Amino acid sequence: MIDYLRIMLAAQKARMDERGASAVEYGLLIAGIAALVVVVVFAFGGTIKGVFSDTCSTIASNASTGTTCE
């Protein structure tokens, strides 16, 4: 009977232990953020490229050194 109680107590302590839970939660959070970044890049990639291209063209046209955007 004592052995049974020891086993039950050890099992209960193992269930109550949360030391590894935060690492798993951080891993899931990082995976979610990475997935969100991938979706945003694929969804708005062309628009972002256009904005940077327009900005570069404006800077190059206003520069006195004759630089290009390549």
From TrEMBL:
Pfam family for this entry, one: Flp_Fap
Tell me which domain of life the UniProt entry assigns to the organism this sequence originates from: Bacteria
Q: Which residues cross the membrane?
A: 21-44
Alphabetical keyword list: Membrane, Transmembrane, Transmembrane helix
| Xref: InterPro entries | Flp_Fap (IPR007047)
What is the recorded name of this protein?
Flp family type IVb pilin
